[in-house]
Design brief:
Blueprint (H helix, E strand, L loop, with lengths): L14 E5 L12 E5 L6 H7 L5 E3 L10 H8 L7 E3 L9 H6 L4 H15 L4 E6 L1 E2 H5 L12 E4 L7 E5 L1 H12 L2 H4 L3 E4 L2 E4 H12 L4 E4 L2 H7 L5 H14 L19 H11 L1
Parallel strand pairs: 1-2, 3-4, 4-5, 5-9, 6-8, 7-11
Antiparallel strand pairs: 8-10
Helix pairs in contact: 1-2, 2-4, 8-11
């Protein structure tokens, strides 16, 4: 996955917060690097690292998600901080969904970070996305095998839209949001640049290959089994359910991304087909 800093154009006066063991060789030379320690013993170094910062954007993932509580502790009481964009970059999940799907436990960790930040009065901004384009096309997040010309249907996914967020769009949108910290604090933004129904996939693949795709069906049994075990399979299954039920949650606010040259869903699919 492309480092988010590579996707943030035209953002000046940027600092990079990193663990002391992180590889910073790909960070541009004009970006100031500050070492942090997201553990119980990092309080002093973390406080010093965030001094003077107005906006903090976190992109940690996996096991590092919960360590953001130490970053929140460092930001508590800052006289310059305007907002903290925690590492969400996921879709909208309801309490009901999380309760019914034990495999989505990692999403609950994000909620713990948010709760901790709210208790510490650290101003938050949430960036929510659809399914990332590389998950959809490379890892078949919605069940569509573009290279094999096969579409997997679950519930009403043929008629419901799948939200898709391309990484370049996420970078542009996030960069532009960060330029206006006073306006976006304590808000949740929906960032996605494509919506495509299952039928849209059928039509595009038919045009691409000259024949209709094979349609398979994802069963309720397969879904229930997948959402029980924490990991990628549970998340992919939950995305299929969101698509099948059209249960994406809020549709706004969506940031206006100035200068963004959007491509059609057909162009997006065709480009990915060339890479697979």
């Amino acid at each position: 996955m492309t480092p988010l800093i590579d996707l943030l154009p035209n953002v000046s006066d940027t600092n990079n917060l990193h663990n002391h063991f992180s590889d910073t060789s790909k960070i541009p030379d004009d970006v100031e690097k500050r070492s942090i320690d997201l553990s119980e013993g990092g309080k002093e170094i973390n406080k010093k690292a965030v001094e003077g910062l107005q906006v903090v954007l976190s992109t940690v993932s996996g096991e590092g998600l919960k360590s953001q509580i130490y970053l929140v502790d460092a930001l508590e009481g800052s006289t310059t901080l305007k907002l903290f964009v925690h590492s969400d970059f996921g879709t909208n999940w309801t309490a009901k969904e999380l309760k019914e799907a034990p495999g989505l436990s990692i999403i609950g960790v994000k909620a713990e970070v948010v709760e901790h930040a709210e208790k510490k009065n650290v101003p938050l901004t949430h960036v929510r996305v659809g399914a990332f384009d590389f998950f959809v096309f490379k890892f078949q997040a919605g069940g569509t095998d573009v290279k094999g010309n096969v579409i997997q249907v679950f519930r009403d996914s043929l008629k419901n839209p799948l939200r898709i967020t391309s990484l370049p769009f996420l970078g542009q949108a996030t960069a532009q949001l960060l330029l206006h910290p006073d306006e976006i604090a304590n808000k949740t933004y929906q960032v996605y640049d494509h919506e495509a129904t299952g039928q849209d996939f059928v039509d595009v693949l038919t045009k691409l290959y000259g024949s209709k795709p094979e349609i398979t069906h994802y069963t309720e049994e397969e879904y229930q089994k997948a959402i029980q075990v924490p990991g990628t399979s549970a998340i992919l299954a939950a995305i299929k359910a969101k698509w099948g039920d059209d249960n994406w949650g809020a549709t706004s606010p969506r940031p206006e991304v100035k200068g963004w040259k959007s491509v059609s869903f057909e162009e997006l699919t065709t480009e990915w087909a060339k890479q697979l």
